[in-house]
Prior knowledge:
This protein is of the alpha+beta class and about 200 residues long. The chain is about 50% helix and about 20% strand. A hairpin with a 3-residue loop joins strand 1 and strand 2. It is globular and about 45 Å long.
Amino acid sequence: MFCLLGMGLQESWGSAETPTQRVRGILEEVMAVQADPKLQGPAFRNQRRIAIKKIIGQNFYFDAMAEKALDKYWGKLGEAGRADFKGIFQALFQDAYTKLVLDFIKREKIVYVQEKPLQEGRALVKTTIVRANDNIPVDYTLTMVQGRWLVEDVDIDGVSIVLNYQRSFARVIKRESYESLLKKMRLQQRAIEKPPQ
């Protein structure tokens, strides 16, 4: 379901590229990996996964995503605790999002609906994936970080990735504890770091 898209026709935003141009670039990189004749078939899925995971790692704003996902609990952590959580969150997000991209994004027809500025160097890019029997709205929130646009959230058909994490984390913390959440996340991280058989 989740994907990366974009193409802009807005002013420069004081950057070399617009938010939608950045997202379009990300999507084109992903689709190039998926369409590479040398990487087709199940035998090359892991190579595609590694390439796509790298693209995601370079183009998402994990600092902001981790803070929003943890919500009010973020303020209770010290600097070391925040760094620890961000590292684990990034590893889990990259893995989950990479699997979605591998399964969902091939060579798609995209309609670039709108780009609009938000507050404090942020922008919203609204797009639609057009398929034979379905149109899927996908909105991207981007933030300018050190002269580059980075994706901060993806909203698929009205569902925010970051808010999904936020609700899920809050449930675990409320029912158990933050330490329990971290333990569950570490177990997941260790599982994804095991080399494929």
